Automatic annotation (TrEMBL):
Superkingdom to which the source organism belongs: Bacteria
Keyword Oxidoreductase: yes
Transmembrane segment boundaries: none
Protein known as: Flavin reductase like domain-containing protein
SMART domains reported for this sequence: Flavin_Reduct (SM00903)
GO molecular function: FMN binding; riboflavin reductase (NADPH) activity
Length: 313
């Protein structure tokens, strides 16, 4: 196999080098900090990495030409906000040069008054440990003093484009099972078949939905509200079919994100919320086609009718 020797000399193709580095998929973070004067900064970065568990150390790098570096150098602490899959707009906002990147952004203040962004996949609050020379970048090491694990599917960056996490196709391969292992009587049991079908369908579909950055409760709410099958909050709980506390938490998050508004009697989607719901419907319909594409329209219509009859709608 031929390899290219990387030489820091005239003739080295830095653009080709950047493209080659782009083959390494990374997460996307927004690094935030605030100095003693109250000056807040935030930069989108994919250079984040773990260094040590004991002590808990992480690192990231910032361009020496960045106007934000002075605040990171002065601040006692900074935060690593690992973005969730639905936070592309936030990533773009902090990647651009703006006077006030925090305009209309909801955040809390953590250690050293570092801004902590809402609804991220995870957040690490770090005490500045040291700053190292790294060519045209400064390498900033931080000691983690606190963290949040919100469990949301993360936003990825690969070959210059945003991406999301999905299980590798090989993990979904189904091993052929000899028919004689399963008694025919069990496979004639409707309850058994329905529960196994739901399990199999969910196992393949749910990772695709979660890759959007929405939790199941949030996704269900968006889909139900877009379909306009729930005219009140009471109807919404029935249609979403999840505990009231889950629905309340999801509603709080979706309102904060500007995806829906609380009218008191019910919830209504905003234009951005409708767009998110349509994206989720596209994911659902694509998976539906993958599963049922081999069946005729008549077969699918009959299957839907049987399910609706069972549900009572």
């Amino acid at each position: 196999m031929n390899s290219m020797n990387i030489q820091p000399e005239i003739g080295f193709d830095s653009k080709a080098f950047r493209r080659a580095l782009g083959n390494f998929a990374t997460g996307v973070t927004i690094m935030t900090a605030q100095n003693s004067k109250g000056e807040k900064v935030g930069v989108t970065a994919n250079s984040f990495n773990s260094v040590s568990l004991d002590p808990p150390l992480i690192l990231w790098s910032i361009d020496k030409r960045s106007s934000s570096y002075a605040v990171f150098e002065e601040a006692t602490h900074f935060a690593v906000n690992i973005l969730a899959a639905d936070q592309i707009e936030l990533s773009n906002k902090f990647a651009r040069s703006k006077d006030d990147k925090y305009a209309d952004v909801v955040f809390d203040l953590g250690e050293g008054n570092a801004p902590l962004l809402k609804e991220c996949s995870a957040v690490f609050e770090c005490e500045r440990h040291s700053i190292l020379e790294g060519g045209d970048h400064w390498i900033i090491l931080g000691r983690v003093v606190n963290f949040q694990d919100n469990g949301r599917s993360p936003l990825l960056y690969h070959q210059g484009a945003y991406s999301s996490v999905l299980p590798h196709p090989s993990l979904n391969a189904k091993a052929a099972t000899p028919a004689e292992i399963f008694p025919g009587r069990l496979y004639d049991n409707m309850y058994y078949l329905l529960t196994q079908a739901v399990r199999a369908y969910t196992n393949d579909y749910q990772p695709k939905q979660l890759a959007s950055g929405f939790r199941t409760s949030e996704a269900r709410m968006l889909l139900v509200l877009e379909s306009k099958t729930a005219t009140s909050k009471e109807c919404l709980q029935r249609e979403v079919a999840m505990p009231a506390r889950e629905i309340e938490q999801a509603a709080e998050i979706l309102v904060r994100k500007g995806l829906m508004v609380d009218t008191g009697h019910s919830y209504e989607l905003t234009e951005q919320g409708v767009h998110s719901a349509q994206m989720l419907y596209q994911i659902a319909e694509s998976h539906q086609q993958d599963v049922f594409g081999a069946y005729s329209d008549q077969d699918k219509a009959l299957f839907k009718k049987m399910l609706k009859d069972l549900i009572g709608i």
